[in-house]
Design goal:
This protein is of the alpha+beta class and 175 residues long. It is built from five helices and seven strands, in the order αβαββαββααββ. A hairpin with a 3-residue loop joins β6 and β7. α1 packs parallel to α5, α2 packs across α3 and α3 runs antiparallel to α5.
């Protein structure tokens, strides 16, 4: 089981490095298609819960009708997988991650809020730096590439990503 976990982690790291190489080479672009955004978000949340082996770890709420949106499914999958995965990973086992989808003018807005360890102020300036990890993550596994990938995918969509965090209280990412 430990070997399988290690192989899976190594495979994920290789995939992330290759994806960053594609970004750097300009080989990726945003190709939006019509998308039922609430259904897509629910599937992403369910996949993260399944991968983390935690039922009801994410509470999804869609406050507006955004069923007829356009987005690049692959890029959006990277964004949500990284942000939701981090939120679940850094939250205490009994804490629920809030995931909200809402309309903001003509844009969709994703808000992912956890009540985990939070990000120290000194680390927040380097959030989107490759291989950088927070000083308070301890032995929690990770490569330091997830937020870099999420940011580049958001940039390709022409969107923005913001983080508010307080150590010991939690973190909120808004895309």
């Amino acid at each position: 089981r430990a070997i399988r976990r290690s192989v899976h982690r190594m495979n994920d790291l290789i995939d992330d490095v290759l994806l960053l190489g594609k970004f750097d080479a300009g080989a990726l672009c945003c190709q939006p298609v019509p998308l039922d955004l609430p259904a897509f978000c629910e599937r992403a949340a369910n996949e993260i819960e399944s991968a983390a082996n935690r039922e009801n770890a994410i509470r999804f709420l869609s406050t507006d009708d955004i069923s007829e949106a356009t987005a690049d499914e692959g890029l959006l999958q990277h964004i949500l997988t990284n942000l939701l995965g981090n939120a679940v990973k850094y939250s205490r086992p009994n804490e629920v991650v809030d995931f909200e989808l809402r309309r903001s003018g003509t844009d969709a807005q994703f808000i992912i809020r956890d009540r985990g360890c939070g990000i120290p102020k000194a680390d927040q300036a380097r959030l989107f730096t490759a291989f950088y990890r927070g000083s308070n993550v301890g032995k929690t596994s990770g490569s330091g590439l997830g937020l870099v990938i999420a940011k580049r995918c958001v940039d390709l969509h022409g969107g923005t990503i913001a983080c508010e965090s307080e150590q010991g209280v939690g973190t909120t990412f808004t895309v």
